[in-house]
Design a protein that fits this description.
By secondary structure, the protein is of the alpha+beta class. It has helices at residues 61-82, 140-153, and strands spanning 9-10, 16-19, 23-28, 31-36, 42-46, 51-55, 85-92, 97-101, 104-108, 115-118, 123-126, 132-137, 163-166.
């Protein structure tokens, strides 16, 4: 048995779950998510223990691989609607900054014109200071993908360290030409 797949997903009292033949719809205080899953897997709601249980039909390699995956995806959805997910980005560089303008951000990161980034519907963005971006949402994949898209606009430079990086990201700086020999 999959160690991750056999664990039941415990639900809090604030989460409402609707299980269909190919998806699980969850609604909680932070939002609403519909998570699709593979038709081989069987997802059931255990009313007695207030938990979701994922089972597999057989021990084929594909079923074993999907067992833990489906459980992890549903668990991420439950965590998202109860607690939410958050990524923090730091902008490092002289004159580099960000401005929140309604449903888009203006990133001034060394290009002649500011880069405009549209914020998706299910994502909330906060800018507590001009060099910090906090991305929040209930969908883990959407939060991570939007953070990666913003970081890709100006990834950290390996010589001076300038650019957009995750909050705890460590960038190893290289020595320049004059210090190489």
């Amino acid at each position: 048995m999959s160690r991750i797949g056999k664990k039941p997903i415990s639900l809090s009292s604030s989460v409402q779950v609707d299980i269909k033949s190919d998806s699980v719809k969850m609604k909680g205080p932070k939002g609403e998510i519909e998570q699709k899953y593979h038709p081989l897997m069987k997802v059931e709601l255990d009313e007695e223990n207030k938990a979701i249980v994922v089972t597999r039909p057989d021990d084929l390699k594909e079923s074993r691989a999907l067992h833990g995956l489906v459980r992890a995806l549903i668990n991420n959805a439950v965590t998202g609607v109860t607690e939410g997910f958050e990524k923090t980005l730091k902008i490092i560089g002289t004159g580099y900054n960000v401005k929140l303008m309604g449903k888009h951000m203006d990133l001034q990161v060394g290009y002649c014109l500011p880069k405009k980034v549209m914020i998706p519907e299910n994502i909330n963005v906060e800018v507590p200071n001009p060099t910090q971006i906090i991305i929040k949402g209930c969908d883990r994949q959407a939060v991570g993908q939007f953070a990666a898209n913003v970081r890709a606009i100006r990834p950290p430079d390996s010589y001076k360290g300038k650019g957009i990086r995750y909050e705890n990201e460590v960038v190893k700086l290289k020595a320049g030409k004059s210090f190489g020999s």
